[in-house]
Every structure is written in structure tokens, then in C-alpha cells.
Amino acid sequence: MDVEKKDFIYEGKAKRMFTTENPELIVVEYKDSFTAFNGMKKETMEGKGELNNKICSKLFEYLASKDIESHFVRQLDNVHQLVKRVKIIPLEVIVRNITTGSLCKRIGVKEGIVLSRPLIEFSYKDDELGDPLIIEDYAVQFGWATEEEITKIKDISFRVNKTLKEFFAKRGVTLVDFKLEFGKDSAGKIILADEVSPDTCRFWDSSTGDHLDKDRFRKDLGTVLDAYREIWKRISE
After folding, report:
1. What is the spatial distance between Cα 120 and Cα 155, in angstroms, rounded to a whole number?
2. Distance CA 27, CA 31 (A)
3. Which of 4, 24, 152, 220 is 20 to 30 A from 74, comparing alpha carbons?
4. pTM, whole model, 2 decimals?
5. Domains of the chain
6. Per-residue pLDDT in tens (0 to 9) along the chain, 237 residues
């Protein structure tokens, strides 16, 4: 790694962050840990961090080639990325193309319904509250984002969805849904942050319907890392 990690900043469920000599850049280290159900289920699998780092780096690079900016600067080695320091907006954006997961549990719809258009949901980033689902007005009323910022976030999210749906469809993978996070860079510009990986996306094999994402861990389906390896194989060829 040609960039030296300095001071430890933060450790989350799947990543650690460190300062660098440049105050506007930080190093992200991908861990081998899996968590689900707000951290209630945990496991460590060697090689998971490397796979997520490679997949995420590849996808951020592809999005950049389509003029969708993120905090990603470059991959440093197997488990480290160099990224821009951003101020995270405390919202998670969920984009859904097919019904599954918590949406089905909340409102009783069947799994597997292909939606007529992408559905966007927002949740408030707070681990203690379990990242509760919110309406857009909550974000505006409580100062988490302005109406203009919400519009910008939704616009970027729709663009990410269209871009990645097409990208994965060519590789025999259906992009079912995914979670995005956003931050503001030093100039106040809203850009993608966090990661885009099988941890944050639901991928189904277009032919078999097999899960190629973290649902294999959530649902005890086994061969979790094999699914991540399959995603990496398809996007790296």
C-alpha cells in the first residue's frame, strides 16, 4: 500500500477508517466480518473483505465512467481503498426493482413482483433505533437534508439504478434492490459514499434465481463467499 494509514477514525460493521497525510483523503479497510439483523447475527469469513473491496472498487470505477461521482479515489491493495473525506448525510436510500425482504414483511406483498418503476425508500441512519424507515418530510423537517438535496439524492439514485441494472443484466445478474449512502465533499457537493457490493445489493442469477449476495448469510443458505466470488468473476471478465 503506497499510502500510509495514520490515525484510526471509526470502525463499523464491515469497515475501518483511517486518516492520511492529506486531510481530505482517508483510507477504508474492508473487514472479513458479516453482520445481519442490525448486528444481532455475526460471523467472520476469511477473504470476504478482499472480495468486497475488489467488487466495490470495480463498481465505483464503472459508475465514474458513466459520470456518477463517488468518494472513491482508487484501490490501494486487497483490502484498502483511498477515498475522499465526506460529511455523511444521515440517510440510507433503498432502491427497489423487485419486491423482497422487509418490504414484503411490512406490507404483505408477494416476493418477486417486478415493479413498474423503481421504488425509493429512505431510512434514518441510527443503529440504536435500527435505521427506521422515514418519509422525505422527516428528513427536511429535522434538518437531515433539504428538499433540494433530497431531489439530488433521488436523481443520482435513479441514475445508479439504471446504470447498474444494465451493467449486471449483460452479465446474467438481476439487480433486485440496493442501499446507497451519500456525503458532501469539501466543496459541499453531494456524492456517493460508503460502498456498492453484495453486502449492500441484492443480486439474483438471471437464469436460476440463485441469491448472489448477503442474503445467503441472512437466510443461512450457505456458500456465501462462493456467491461473492461469482459476482467478482462476472464483473471482472
Report:
1. 11
2. 13
3. 152
4. 0.95
5. 8-84 (3.30.200.20), 87-223 (3.30.470.20)
6. 778 899 999 999 999 999 999 999 999 999 999 998 877 899 999 999 999 999 999 999 999 999 999 999 999 999 999 999 999 999 999 999 999 999 999 999 999 999 999 999 999 999 899 999 999 999 999 999 999 999 999 999 999 999 999 999 999 999 999 999 999 999 999 999 999 999 999 999 999 999 999 999 999 999 999 999 999 999 998
